[in-house]
Design goal:
The protein is of the alpha/beta class. 50% of the residues lie in helices and 9% in strands. Helix 1 (7-28) crosses helix 3, helix 8 (141-159) packs antiparallel against helix 9 (166-180) and helix 8 packs parallel to helix 10 (210-223). The model is unreliable at 364-368 (pLDDT under 50).
Length: 371
């Protein structure tokens, strides 16, 4: 049984800080990939083990507020255990400790962000209960609004989950809209703490204001989530001609946000070619939208790797990327012939492939069917 001793926690924090600093320096260097790998193995080495530190922090948290490091221990249990055995239990203990002994902790929004980032929505009812409780009973309206934001965004992710039935996904979307509406009331100009992002010079990009975050979330829930009608959008094809989504009205369209530098995007191309060849052109189309820095990179790539379907180029700062909240590549959005969004996902797996075929062909859309 671990002792309630802060020392092993501090040792881990110090070692983890040094490890990440080395890791970032090596990856940002001008070394060859081979040299980077050597330095990662020999200079940086494996990540420090966290088990002793987690045990010590948990022992402190269980002292019912008697230890001077109670708040720090709870913070550590929430913020640090990504991938560690017992991660969910550690985070739940951290939140229970803060709720009971440090209800005015000034890092609550950051703790909620970590809870959201580390845990997939809908998999643990106790995790979801933390967000729900915080959204209703916390004294700080910024914290309550932040909790509501994460509840709604988690429901949105569940609404877009391909494995769930359509009725459940649409119900999740409707609930998310209800939760998101008014979440920033009275605190519109306060920041929403999310994962930090940095510009090319290493400076942190300012967080969204809660009012803007609410507006963007509601826009995405109402227009870009399963059950919504896809908004009108247009961009230039690779040949420079402006084109609108309306050009594909009546067809099932798989919108594929990608880039040549995106490994998973490139890896999925054989499967996309297979799907495109299998399904009839008059009923199905793929629309790949490139976020590459230069159009020439896309044109050069396609000389050796053909993508024989519709292609748009919007660049890394295209308005559609911002407006549609495209944060990861690939991002796939499946739209049926009436313009209704059927799925939004980052993975081209068997379930999603089946949905593509069923949306195009009905239940005839089994492997090999040409409907």
């Amino acid at each position: 049984v671990a002792e309630p001793n802060w020392a092993p926690v501090q040792v881990y924090i110090d070692e983890d800080t040094v490890w990440h600093k080395l890791n970032d320096e090596i990856l940002a260097s001008d070394d060859t990939d081979e040299e980077k790998k050597r330095r990662l193995d020999e200079v940086r080495g494996p990540h420090p083990e966290i088990e002793d530190a987690l045990g010590a922090a948990a022992a402190i948290a269980r002292l019912d507020g008697a230890h001077e490091k109670t708040a720090d221990a709870a913070d550590f249990l929430i913020r640090h255990p990504l991938g560690a055995p017992g991660m969910e239990e550690a985070q739940l203990l951290g939140f229970a400790t803060l709720e009971k002994h440090v209800p005015d902790y000034d890092e609550w929004p950051l703790m909620l962000m970590n809870l959201d980032f580390y845990n997939q929505p809908g998999e643990n009812g106790e995790i979801e209960a933390v967000f729900e409780r915080t959204s209703k009973v916390h004294a700080d309206p910024v914290v309550r609004g932040t909790a509501r934001y994460y509840i709604a965004s988690r429901l949105q992710r569940q609404a877009n989950e391909v494995l769930a039935d359509t009725a459940t996904r649409i119900a999740n979307r409707e609930q998310a809209i209800e939760v998101a509406t008014g979440l920033s009331l009275g605190v519109e100009d306060r920041e929403l703490v999310k994962r930090a992002r940095f510009d090319k010079d290493g400076n942190q990009i300012p967080f969204q204001k809660l009012g803007d975050a609410e507006a963007n979330l509601l826009y995405n829930l109402k227009n870009l989530t399963v059950g919504a009608t896809i908004p009108v959008a247009s961009a230039k094809r690779l040949d420079g001609i402006e084109e609108s989504l309306e050009a594909y009205q009546g067809q099932t369209v798989l919108i594929d946000f990608w880039a040549t530098w995106c490994g998973p995007c490139v890896k999925s191309l054989p499967k996309l070619n297979e799907i495109a060849a299998e399904l009839p052109e008059d009923r199905f189309e793929i629309l790949s939208i490139s976020a590459d820095k230069e159009l020439g990179e896309v044109l050069e790539f396609q000389q050796d790797t053909p993508m024989p379907w519709a292609n748009w180029y919007v660049g890394p700062k295209g308005e559609i990327l911002r407006r549609w909240n495209i944060r990861a590549f690939p991002t796939y959005i499946l739209v049926d012939g009436e313009g209704t969004i059927m799925a939004r996902t980052n993975v081209l797996n068997d379930a999603f492939e089946s949905l593509i075929r069923d949306t195009t062909c009905g239940k005839l859309g089994t492997a090999g069917a040409s409907c």
